[in-house]
Design goal:
Blueprint: H1 6-27, H2 33-47, H3 67-76, H4 79-85, H5 87-92, H6 100-124, H7 127-132, H8 140-166, H9 170-200, H10 205-209, H11 212-246, H12 253-267, H13 272-284, H14 294-297, H15 305-311, H16 314-322, H17 331-337, H18 358-373, H19 384-393, H20 401-414
Amino acid sequence: MRSVPPVARAYVLLAVGAALVCAAPAVTSATSWPAVGLLACLYAGCEQVGRCRIIGRRAPQGMGTFFPVLLAGAFLLPPSAAALVAVPGALLTHVEQRPAGLRRIWRAARLALALWASARLFGALGGPEAVSAPHFPYALVPAAAAVLAFCAVLTVLDCGILATAERVSVRGAWPGLLLRSLGPVAVHGLAGLVMAVLWASPYGPAAALLVLLPMYISCWVFAQYQRERAAHQATIRALVQAVDIKDGYTRGHSERVGQASMMIARELGMDDERVEVLRFAGILHDVGKLGVPTRLLRKDGPLTPEEREIIQLHPEYGHEMVRGIGFLGEARSAILHHHERLDGSGYPYGLAGQQIPECARVVAVADAFDAMTSTRTYSRARPVPVALAELERCSGSQFDPVMVEALVQVLRREGWHPVVTADETAALPTPRAEGVPVPGAASR
């Protein structure tokens, strides 16, 4: 909405007019003003937490953090009064994109309309009586309906602004908008209902405000987790892109090995945390190729013994590159040992049997499977059954039988549907020598 089309401006003004009509009855009623003022100030203060010099960027961002305050207003106040709760906070919120004034007005109008509809439905279903009685369990149904109405109104309004300002198809936009908001708002709605029940109880508003502290802490923890996870994903994505740029033959290979490693780990019953680590290990198993001369990676002819020795250093290069990345955990040993063989003839250290870390044995099978089922400049892709038969033939000598059997079982049940596919190459130059003796069973 940086350059807002006239039709979008008209749409915003229409929403503002509708919000004013909905909130107008509250202006003539003085009975709700103390509660409206307290909730509005509380919401406005919550919206300003991100600007605090002490908390700063560590605070959860966005109005969704404090939906409990808004929904508590919908559960406690008449519809016209509830519509006013969000207005001061929305008008004072920080907006980075221009036009800031129009965006603040739009935000206030959409929240006011959503709160009015939510409070209206909550009252029609007998919610206020259940809250004030208090008959807390009986308030759950009207509260759930109010939350659904809140999300539905926001979705309709957002679809309208996307259609008028961004020319986005409403048909394709609304399902994602509704589903994305429904889960978080439902959780916040439950907290808002608890606030409303405590507010109407003999303990009063002071007790209701205590609900915000654990809610804020949980939002803060979740925000920190999301930031950390995003940083992890960005780190891995950057490393993989660097490998793909240097060795075009492996484009997509890393993601597919990560996918196959994850499938094996799940089949073996590993917990979600280890499954994620195995996915990281598969994705980054060839990161050490960044330390190998490009001319060797792209050489079409057979490798000399000296060149082969250089390429076989890539697991050690990769381990050195990621040894300081703490969140990778045991994935680092998989990067180092994924070319070891059960019979001890692998590299870089010639480990055998159970000396090879479990995660490395998983990645070795996933790596070999994708190498055989992908078209490269030195080999055509083999059908999945043929590749699995080759893995079973080499089971016990090159690969761990447990890992091979896990891959065979999961692929027979779910099939192989890689997220990323390697570029198909029509012409196949002279085959290059492989880093592992089994033809087509592993990549360099």
